Amino acid sequence: MLEDRSYMQDPLYGSRKSVTVILLVALVVCFIVQSVVFSYSLSGSIFIHRYLLLSGDAIRSGFIWQLITYQFLHGGFLHILFNGIVLFFFGKALETTLSTRNWLQLYFGAGIVGGLFHALGNLVLPLNFAAPVVGASAGVSGLLGAFCYLYGDQTISIFGVLPIRSRAFFILSAVLSTFFILVPAAGPGVAHGAHLGGLLFGYAYGKWLVHYDWKMPEFGNLFRRKPKIFIHKPQSASWSSQKGPAPELPSEEFMSKEVDPILDKISEHGIQSLTERERKILEAARAKMARR
User: Fold this and answer.
1) Using one digit for the tens of pLDDT, what is the confidence trace for 188-233?
2) Which residues 6+ apart lie within 8 Å of 140 measured at CB?
3) Is the pTM higher than 0.90?
């Protein structure tokens, strides 16, 4: 049965190793180690605060590794819980269309840019950016920004209740982050500068990917387990010059000989690496599945 093939299952629940899950495990392990050190080692706590947390002064002093290390530390259980939930849903969603390399570039690039935003903010508005920064929030914001660009018409739910279009949610998030940068709340707060930097980087990264002249497959509902294949939907105008349709083969043979290698290529290099012929074959596969 075609439906029994691995690529016919919902990628959110597939058996393929997930970079999102691997990163989540790494974050949890780091949080446990961090908690133990803070509880039992004064010298270890001082080391973490001085060398691993991100601060504008430290970056200007040459501690540039903090742009990476701060992303693996968190300010408490609720902090890592919230970041982990958002990371899981948007990270898994983007795994269906980005290669592992693109995904990692997006996530850590957003984390680095978010850290630089905070360091720059500390230079321009030192009172608003005085506290050091920890957390995966900038990287997670990058995933969110890319999702909002690539799937701008998709509806997402805030706290699982309030539906909003992805593109509108991006604008709302950017406006709120900017507002709280300029008018910070009293007491310990959120690193809005890092959030904004990561969000803008993610959106820009998504736009850059689209310049490769490919169209995102339809994402569908995050919470629906209905089997489906995520394939490229071509733009008829740009591909009208293709010579003839994909070869007519029986469904099973067509999938194994033509589609499987293309899906492997998408998994390894991302959908933007496909040639026009490969995209046309995927469109033929989509048409075959639609007739079933």
Assistant:
1) 578 889 999 999 999 999 988 876 544 444 444 443 443 333 434 4
2) 83, 86, 87, 90, 91, 198
3) no
Examine residue 22 and state whether it is found in any structural domain, yes or no. Answer: yes
In single-letter form, the type of residue at position 4 comes to D
Residues 88 and 188 in one domain: yes
Cβ-based neighbours of 210, under 8 Å, separated by 6 or more: 149, 150, 216
CA pair distance 148, 146, nearest whole angstrom:
5
For residue 218, which of 141, 125, 137, 282 has the smallest C-alpha distance? 282
Count the helix, strand and coil residues of the chain and give each as a percent rounded to the nearest 5: 65, 5, 35
- Whether residue 96 sits in one domain with residue 142: yes
Same domain, 22 and 100: yes
Tokens 């898994």 locate to 92
CA gap 31, 21 in Å, rounded:
15
Q: Assess if residue 100 is contained within a domain.
A: yes
Intra-chain end-to-end CA distance of the chain, in Å: 12
Torsion angles phi and psi, residue 88, rounded to 5: -60, -50
Q: Are 143 and 90 in contact (CB under 8 A)?
A: yes
